[in-house]
Amino acid sequence: MPYAIVIVPVAPLRATASHRSEMVSQLLWGACVEIMETAPGGWALVKNQYDEYIGWATVAHLEPIDEELFQAPAMAYMPGWVNRVTLNGQPMQVPFGCLVKGVPAIAAQWGQVTVKLEDQPLALPTTGANVDMAALENAAWQFLNTAYLWGGNSVFGVDCSGFTQTVFKLLGIPLWRDAYQQATQGHTVDFLQEARLGDLAFFDNEEGKITHVGILLSDHEIIHASGKVRIDAIDNQGIINADTGIRTHQLRIIKRLLATGRP
Q1: CA-CA-CA-CA dihedral for 257, 258, 259, 261, to nearest 10
Q2: Residue 263 lies in a domain
Q3: Residue 192 belongs to what domain range?
Q4: Judgement on whether residues 21 and 65 belong to the same structural domain of the protein
């Protein structure tokens, strides 16, 4: 199966092969995908290597690569809110949290594209290492006031599960893409009063479907993407908007993933 890497800052991943179709997720610069099929109009059905999410991407946003680069582990990530890179000598700004396979400090070859990092990446934590809680807070704070965007997972626009996935990705802890999928990971925390920094809180709708997720800062505060990435109060019933005092989300379950460093 052919492989490719994303060569634009943020590439939409759509439900069907059309620019008018729903954006179900995004692929950040440096993300690798498997190309499952192609369609007229310059579209490819791809599977994201990181979380196995499937959607339609624009071929112009991708560069074919060999299996060796595809299988290479991500070694670092771009730590600035925006970061400078060049592709074939042309400048580009890529967002916080883009993963880097290897560290092309001078230059690296991605298919026919020459890549150079102008800003210094940070090494990803070793799998299974103790989680740096200060790093968790720093990653979450990068998103504060970022606008809510359905399917988004960058600091330019993010949805609730894209936010949690990206923050945990930079801790070396993989999460699935959607909130209901993430709710299957980790271990249940029985009571909100037992919650601690880094636990994930999930919320459901009237039908009982998990529709929202956020990161607990304590047993009474949560950071989450709702309208924008914000910090709100939480109690046993759910989230209370800090600006309006209105209850916005109904608490369903709390999960902990940080005890072992893996979901």
Answers
A1: 100
A2: no
A3: 133-256
A4: yes
Taking only the tens place, the pLDDT of each residue in 81-126 is: 999 999 999 999 999 999 998 665 667 889 999 999 999 999 888 7
Asked if residue 165 and residue 95 are part of one domain, the reply reads no
If asked whether residues 137 and 114 sit together in one domain, one would say no
Does residue 261 sit within a domain? no
pLDDT for 263: 38
Can you give the pLDDT at residue 105?
60
CATH classification at residue 63: 2.30.30.40
Tell me how far apart the alpha carbons of residues 211 and 203 are, in angstroms, rounded to a whole number: 6
pLDDT of residue 21: 98
**pTM for the predicted model, two decimal places:** 0.93
Residue 128 domain flag: no
∠ at Cα 200 (247, 50), nearest 5°? Answer: 125
Q: Are 46 and 4 in contact (CB under 8 A)?
A: yes
**Looking at 105, 123, 141, which one is the last position of a domain?**
123
Q: Does the pLDDT of residue 251 top 80, yes or no?
A: yes
28/99 Cα distance (integer angstroms)? 8
What is the domain count for the chain?
2
- Tell whether 160 and 233 lie within a shared domain: yes
- Give 13's strand partners: 25
